[in-house]
Every structure is written in structure tokens, then in C-alpha cells.
Amino acid sequence: MKVVAIVGSIRKESYNLKLAKFIQTRYQERFELEILNVRDLPFYDQDIENDPPVVVKEFKSKVANADAVLWVTPEYNGTIPGVLGNVIDWLSRVDKVMIGKPSWIMGASMGHLGTVKAQLHLREILFALGISSPLLPGNEVYVGAVHEKIDKEGTLTHEPTVQFLDTVVDNFITWFNHHNR
Ligand code: FNR
Questions:
Q1: Which residue puts its alpha carbon closest to atom 29 of ligand 1?
Q2: What is the pLDDT of residues 108-130, one digit of tens each?
Q3: Is 75 in the pocket of ligand 1 (CB under 6 A)?
Q4: What is the CATH number of domain 2-179?
């Protein structure tokens, strides 16, 4: 299975990027995870949506060719960051590559609620888009106080969180296989 991760943070030391990389390494025998580059995407612009820059075409093509999308989002001001909204705008238009694409969501923050509000909004956006993106039900991964749960190398050291991730990955694969029968 080939999964692409879309991380809603472009900062170098992003905890959400570290979480995506941790998943990429820990579950490499279960699925291939490519973390997409959101930094180089320009702002969505309806004037160029039919013939966007190559970087947008390549990004959309990677999503189109993936079996599933993993969204890993920070929370900014009680919602998803602008960079993530920008990605969704591009994906939602013209060739609508998210149609029928299974996806799942997780997120990390230094606060204790671990991106609850951002993820609720993201679920609603993906649902309301009318792009029929099937979302893994339940399995809500809110990694709160992430700075206390991850070491400098980006390894999740908080065993209960790691065990929960193991369960979520199992559930995702079961759900994905059921969805694709
Ligand atoms: C934040 N942060 C934050 N945290 C949170 O739990 N709820 C929130 O609403 C916000 N709002 C917010 C706005 C802005 C503009 C910034 C820069 C930050 C803190 C945020 O969780 C923290 O910076 C994370 O480390 C961001 O994720 P990455 O970049 O580490 O992946």
C-alpha cells in the first residue's frame, strides 16, 4: 500500500513532521509512506487552476496515484493552518484527485488537547467538500503535550501513545482492505 502524508506545518522542527516521519519508519513493513512537500506549493489561484505550475501538477499527481492520504495537522488559532487549507483548495478543484481517496487524520500540539479543534474542522471540511473522501472512522489521534513525548531524534518515547498508534495503524489497514474489497 502506498500512502502519502500531507503535513500542515512547514517549519523545520515541526512536531507534526516528526510524527509523520516516526510513522514512516515504524510502519515501513506495513505500508510505504511518502511525505509530500507542501512548502513549494503557491497560493491557490482560480485564474491558473486549469493549468497550474508544475509543482502543483506533480503534487496532485502524487495524491492521485496514492492508495490513501494521511493528514497530519497542527492546530493554529483553533483550526487548521493556512498551509493545509491551501493544499485542500488545490486538491478540491479541476481534476479533484481526492474523490474516493481513503484518508485518515492525526495531529500533535504542545497543548493538552492535541489538535482536537483542528481535526474536527478538517473532518468537516473533507466531508463537506463533496469530494467523497472516505475517512477512517474513530481512531482519533490527538498527541497532546507532544514536546514531552518525543526526543530530539524524533522518536516517540511515550509508550502509551506508541501502543495507541500501533492499534490505529492496524485499524486503518483493516478498514482500508475492507473498503477496497
Ligand atoms: C499555535 N499553537 C496552537 N496550539 C494549540 O493547541 N491550539 C491553537 O489554537 C494554537 N494556535 C497556534 C497559532 C499559531 C499561529 C502558532 C504558530 C501556534 C501552538 C502549536 O500547537 C505549536 O506551535 C506546534 O508546535 C505547531 O505544530 P508543528 O509546527 O510543531 O508541527
A1: 14
A2: 999 999 999 999 999 999 887 65
A3: yes
A4: 3.40.50.360
pLDDT band at 179 (very low <50, low <70, confident <90, very high): confident
Neighbours of 23 (CB within 10 A): 24
Q: pLDDT digits over 130-152, tens only?
A: 555 799 999 999 999 999 999 98
**In sequence order, what are the residues at sequence separation of 6 or more whose Cβ sits closer than 8 angstroms to the Cβ of residue 116?**
75, 142
pLDDT in tens, 37-87: 999 999 999 999 999 999 999 999 999 999 999 999 999 999 999 999 999
Asked if 31 contacts 180 with a C-beta cutoff of 8 angstroms, the reply is: no
Looking only at the bridges linking them, the beta strands covering 103-108 and 141-143 are: parallel
Report CA(109)–ligand 1 centroid distance (Å).
6
Q: Where along the chain do its domains lie?
A: 2-179
Q: Whose CA is nearest to atom 6 of ligand 1?
A: 111
**Residue 73 Cβ < 6 Å to ligand 1:** no
